[in-house]
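Here is an idea for our session: we take a single protein and study its fold together. To get us started, please write out a protein record for me. Once you have written the record down, we can walk along the chain together.
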Amino acid sequence: MKKQFLIAGALSLCLGAGTVMAQDAPQMLRQDDMKAIGQAMGQLGAIAKGQKAYDPVVVEGALSSIATHATDFPTHFPEDSKTGNDSEASPAIWENMDDFTARSEKLASDANALLADLPADQAAVGQAMRTLGANCGACHEIYRVKN
């Protein structure tokens, strides 16, 4: 009986460790960054479309999130993470890592510039969305594979 408990306990630990490791996989970390950027863009988009009232705290938080996650994003592309975990990363990323990183840095830089001169109303948030969205779209066109 004691042996069964030890085996069950060891199995539980192994299964739990596998879950933790999967959550820390580079593919999952970069997906988390993209989800955070998407959520922030959604917040800005709702203001730009007039679905939500302009709120400088929300705008600042969204831009800060975009800047932070865009800076972090390129750190999650080691050579051994080209596939797996439902990755939508194009092989072109590893072929053009300098360009890929520069594009991510451009998004972060543009978000930081907008933070320094915070959009002051709905129209300005719409203009910010066009600037940031152009960065996102251009990068996705080259470096994202739709599954």
